């Protein structure tokens, strides 16, 4: 398991290649990347706050739970914090498994849980001011399917 | 015991951390103590359904006991990913 919380940008290609290269006997690697989107057309930045210490513990717990439920050989969670511009990458997950179903499902599970169970908070800075992003009921509901 | 605030809870209270000397029995007792401090605390803790709490970096309910706890954190629902 590779869990990283960092301010610096990451290179998706390099991370995906390095993750795939260190696997052995895995037939499938799935990656997901989250990107800062500008829905209203006036977003100047996304500020991401987190709870140092708890964040890492929560991400490890989520990754461990995924490894209990699916046959995955490895998982990567990389999440940024600080001030990000539109179109910058916020985070990525990667999972590796012998067959693709486990890697896909484990990646979706990681995403669903880190959206509402890992202590990150997003604030959108627009021309009109800065607002905390509200948690969506759908994100909470998504947990019930697991 | 350290009490930490994040996101809009931190902004409403005006600082990221308090150190308290008292020993509240539960999270709810701590909330009542903080509410009584000043208006900005009362405002931040007005609607508990809008808040989440972690005790020693684990998510807990508001009726959770605090015996032996070193760190309690209050924050809005999380928006990672």
Automatic annotation (TrEMBL), chain A:
Organism field: Roseovarius tolerans
Domain of life: Bacteria
Lineage, top ranks: Bacteria, Pseudomonadati, Pseudomonadota, Alphaproteobacteria, Rhodobacterales
EC class name: transferase
Catalytic function, reaction form: 2 [molybdopterin-synthase sulfur-carrier protein]-C-terminal-Gly-aminoethanethioate + cyclic pyranopterin phosphate + H2O = molybdopterin + 2 [molybdopterin-synthase sulfur-carrier protein]-C-terminal Gly-Gly + 2 H(+)
Subunit structure: Heterotetramer of 2 MoaD subunits and 2 MoaE subunits. Also stable as homodimer. The enzyme changes between these two forms during catalysis.
Cross-referenced SUPFAM superfamilies: Molybdopterin synthase subunit MoaE (SSF54690)
Record bears the keyword Plastid: no
Family: Belongs to the MoaE family.
MF annotations from Gene Ontology: molybdopterin synthase activity
Keywords: Molybdenum cofactor biosynthesis
Family matches, as CDD domains: MoaE
EC number: 2.8.1.12
Function noted in UniProt: Converts molybdopterin precursor Z into molybdopterin. This requires the incorporation of two sulfur atoms into precursor Z to generate a dithiolene group. The sulfur is provided by MoaD.
Name recorded for this polypeptide: Molybdopterin synthase catalytic subunit
Functional pathway: Cofactor biosynthesis; molybdopterin biosynthesis
Pfam families assigned: MoaE
Biological process according to GO: Mo-molybdopterin cofactor biosynthetic process
Automatic annotation (TrEMBL), chain B:
InterPro entries: Beta-grasp_dom_sf (IPR012675), Mopterin_synth/thiamin_S_b (IPR016155), ThiS/MoaD-like (IPR003749)
Entries under Gene3D superfamilies matching the protein: 3.10.20.30
Superkingdom, natural source: Bacteria
Cross-referenced NCBIfam families: moaD
Pfam families assigned: ThiS
The name this protein goes by in its record: Molybdopterin synthase subunit MoaD
